[in-house]
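To: structure desk
From: M.T.
Subject: fold request, one chain
Message: Could you run this one when you get a chance? Sequence is below, nothing fancy, just the single chain.
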Amino acid sequence: MAALSAEDIQGIETALAAGRKPKVQFTESAGQIAGQIGQVVGLTDRSESDEFVVVRFGRDELPFSPGDLQIAPRGAVAAKKAVPAVAPPAEPELTGPEFMIDKPLPPQRKESPAPARPAAEGTDVTAPAPRKVTKPAKAKPGPSLTVTLAYGDGEWTVAAQQGAKSLARPYVIRPAEALKIVSLVDVPGVQDAVEQIMTAERAEAQAQAERLRAELAEVEARLAELT
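Reply: Done. Structure tokens follow.
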């Protein structure tokens, strides 16, 4: 059998580029598979090895040299069952105790893992789906309302604001009204502070009243002298 020529290699390369897998026949130099048919599935770098023609033979894809192959005759059918490319070496005859010798196996193409077998009837192998924890929705807060009671420069004022909107600008109220508002709020220290302010205001008002009485008495005396 004639080996693949340079023209044959070029033709195989052109066929592979076009998406075809040309058929080849193994020559006698291929050993036990001589005469079998395979398909060329690729060409590797011929500068690295003489076996650069990758042939699919059954379920295997193995590299061969051009001397191991020739163009297959028309109508040839590729083999469907893989046959070892190299005959297993004969076991040497040993004198004495017998030994087990590991025989090298031809390289095998990696196959996809077998699909998982279905579980027996009545067996539930489905993992429970994780429960999704739903957080309770937060209630939408209503608009804030701020009422301010303030004291400054001897006057009590009240102001009100809802959110960013001003409902009432600070306006003056009587001290008695301020004391009544504070009495409704039971906050430690607040009523004491208001009481101190009220005491100071009463003392100042009383002193002012005494001054006014003295001035009034003086005015009445002058008036009496004039009459």
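Reply (cont.): Helices lie at 6-17, 175-183, 190-226. Let me know if you need anything else for the meeting.
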